[in-house]
Specification:
By secondary structure, the chain is an alpha+beta fold. The protein has seven helices and five strands, in the order ααααββαβββαα. The chain folds into three domains: 79 residues, Winged helix-like DNA-binding domain superfamily/Winged helix DNA-binding domain (Arc Repressor Mutant, subunit A, Orthogonal Bundle), CATH 1.10.10; 67 residues, no CATH class; 42 residues, no CATH class. The strands form two sheets. Strands 3-4-5 form a three-stranded antiparallel β-sheet, with no helix packed on it. Strands 1-2 form a two-stranded antiparallel sheet. The radius of gyration is 23 Å and the shape is elongated. This is Transcription regulator TrmB N-terminal domain-containing protein.
């Protein structure tokens, strides 16, 4: 019988106030927060990781430390200088009620929409390498209509259905709850399978999974 490794209990989440919530939910700060959650880092290490100037790294670290999001660890003195490392607790709970979002819709959209915009930016850079002229094809379908991206010669099914690792599709299917649950299970299983193949030195790919009851058009 194979013994399973016993994982240590997850640390208790940190509580937040409104100022901390604004920083923790800032999409632009996620790379920095992720770095400092993994291990304490110096300002120079932050600058290298984010590919920014050292002054910018210090500015960001001051924002986090003044709010209490980051803690300073004095490691040792080098000559007259004190080496400081900055760390962020690995778990936080950010209640919707303490944020500046007026509605739960705005709270959710604040995290999703900036990432969708970046996804669109990456997509545009890719499709511009295929051909210069793009538009939408709106065509009658069996039940309703289809809207497909393409050029003057037709929709770009070769790009979306071919070997290029790129998808930009929103589909709809009428499913029972059991089938929808099975679809979710399979999608998550595929994500887990390919997550195990991750190669750090390879290209980064963004994968988005969306499944919700209701029609978005």
């Amino acid at each position: 019988m194979t013994e399973r490794a016993v994982l240590p209990p997850a640390p208790q989440p940190q509580t937040t106030d409104a100022a901390q919530a604004a920083l923790l939910l800032d999409v632009e700060l996620r790379p920095l927060l992720g770095l400092l959650m993994q291990a304490p880092s110096t300002a120079r290490e932050v600058a290298q990781h984010l590919d920014v100037k050292i002054q910018r790294a210090y500015y960001l670290l001051r924002k986090l430390t003044r709010s209490g999001v980051a803690q300073v660890q004095v490691e040792r003195e080098t000559g007259r200088q004190t080496l400081r490392r900055y760390a962020v607790a690995p778990r936080w709970f950010i209640p919707y009620e303490i944020t500046r979002a007026e509605t739960l819709n705005a709270f959710l959209a604040g995290q999703i929409l900036p990432r969708i915009e970046r996804f669109v930016d990456h997509s545009v850079r890719l499709i511009q390498t295929q051909q210069p002229n793009w538009g939408y094809w709106l065509e009658r379908a069996e039940q309703s209509s289809n809207l497909r991206l393409g050029g003057p010669d037709g929709s770009a099914q070769g790009l979306f259905g071919g070997d290029e690792p790129f998808l930009l599709n929103l589909g709809m299917a009428h499913l029972t709850r059991a089938d929808a649950t099975e679809l979710k299970r399979r999608l998550l299983a595929v994500m887990a399978e390919f997550g195990e193949r991750e190669t750090p030195e390879a290209d980064a790919y963004t994968v988005g999974l969306l499944l919700v009851r209701g029609e978005v058009g």
